[in-house]
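Let's inspect a concrete specimen:
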Amino acid sequence: MNNSLNQSDLKRRFVFDDADVRGCYARLDESCKTIQSTHYYPNSLARLINEFTIAAVLLKDSIKSDGSLTVQMRTESDINLLIADCANDGSVRAICEYDHSAVLPDEIILNHLPGAVLAVTITPDDGDRYQSIIPVEHGSLAMCLEDYFERSEQLPSRFNLLATAEKAVGFSLHALPAQHIKDIALSEQRFEHLDVLLKSMTLEEAHADTSADALTKLYHDESCRLFDVKSLQFGCECSTERSLNALKALGEEELRDLVAEHKAEDKDAVTVDCHFCFQRYLISFEQIDTLFSEVLQ
């Protein structure tokens, strides 16, 4: 195995030369710090948000599609909405809406959250958006994702998500069509063996090691080949155009009322704030008039 670059935010694919299995290692340090700095989150919720973010990276790597991938959870509990995105360029972001007056448990168990529903959304650069709904029948996000792959794919996948309130490390394993091992039972046995080793990685070990060191510890007796490191970073997809589209979605009548209110307050623009990164966009009344003409067409 080759040494990894000394980067804090990265992903790295690996493959086993004598087994029909591939995988991905991902680490987020600075990106998690940026996500947490935009809002105040209790520790247990911060860990869960970081877990969702590293999961988005691993899912984006496993599902071959240009564009972005979103992991989302809605519940009828004090945690209303949690969203984590990974874009095609390796940019990640996440946010959670929750009841700030609530006292959250030290450990958030997903299938204990009333009405919890998970969704994975793929938004390609070209083409239609595709969404899969995942039943929340397990306590951890990793187990829910494994269930998702069991339901949607013929070949199994496994995850180990190791997050703190400050950072996250994640591993994925994906079974491949038989090539090295033709015996199906033996191939499945090899996959389960690699999964047992994967699940043996502790949070402390994962956060102390580089990608090469972590994978060497896990698979020191295996023929595991590492690919190049790919950088990850915090990034937001907000823009003036997206802000205009958000206003347009309100509808013409509500937009006109909003403009009238702002004019009555002697303002010359409507403010749109991005909840992910706190970027503020000032949309002029002239720009909104253009939206009106588009709505009327």
Summary: The radius of gyration is 22 Å. The chain has a mean pLDDT of 88. The domain at 240-296 is CATH 3.90.1280.10 (CBS domain Like).
